[in-house]
Please model this.
Amino acid sequence: MLSKRCALVGGVILAVSLATPLSSAAADPAPQSASPAPPSMIDALERDLGLSEAQVVTRLANEERAVAVESALTAQLGASFGGAWLNDDASKLMVATTDANAAPTIEAQGAQPVVVKRTLADLNAVMQKLDQAPRQASAAASLWYVDVKTNTVSVQAPTVEAADALATAAGVDKSMITVSATAERPMTFIDIVGGMPFYIGSSRCSVGFSVTRGSTPGFVTAGHCGRAGARTTNPTGTFQGSSFPGNDYAWVAAPGNNATPYVRGSGGSLVTVRGSTQASVGSSICRSGSTTGWRCGTIQQHNATVTYPQGTVSGLTRTSACAQPGDSGGSFISGSQAQGVTSGGSGNCSVGGTTYHQPVNEILSVYGLTLRTG
Model:
């Protein structure tokens, strides 16, 4: 099984193919996966990694075997463990250790030993210091991570000076890090979709519709969900404006997220928003929310005024679509036209009920927003 021998700086590597059976000194070969990869995953790996179907199947088997080997060696090597990684085609598993005497233990599992200066625990300790650095220094850097292949911690920023400043502010041993300039500007990529949940502390509401203000993405929702300045998560954002009672609307700026022209429909399907023309009384209408999903009814009246315990809200549209707590702020759509955001109502989706929405065009006008359409 030990097909060839080659040298690597820091130690000797014994190359071994994970595509072949493990050596007789190792544990029994890993069994076939109980849950083979679905065809859609195989197709995607073929497409994105430029592999044939046979290569994908072999790679997945190698990766599964490597997980078991790495887990075993992590325990066996203990404090000397320096990390592990697969080579580019996933045919070889390299396992790093600070103890040259541990090479036979690694080889016995069918992996290749790499002797290094630092343990994984040493590198993780550097990461902890970087994570706890003053915010001003960390905000100027783009990313930092443990690089087991080089046995260092990599710090990257728009400039080398900014990366070095973070290392200095964190007080780390600079012999254990590498600093470099990068063009990467990491950001979150949550798709903003109408009807999906978002959170304000421990409270949950629903996204109404994706909007933009200039180049800033965000979404509209109910005003009673949060006051201006309140922070949201999933997606991360900040309430920029909110009105309740009197009205019941708000908008949240969510930079770094992706404003989509979609509302979550029946069974999780996506409904494309084409515009915001108000539908006539008697028209069918559906709403999407994070508690009860996709529910439909008809428009009963426009320009309704409702008295809630918190105060009176006017200019609402009354519908026969049901809703429940947590659906607040969610999308009302008629055909492909956005209608409004869920305000409140009576009843529930077990016995039926009446629900009111704040018309979306008023929200767009008040805050100078552009509805995201497809």
In short: The chain has three domains: 4-115, 120-181, 188-374. The radius of gyration is 28 Å. DSSP finds seven helices and 25 strands in the chain. Helices lie at 39-49, 53-77, 103-108, 120-131, 135-139, 160-170, 360-367.
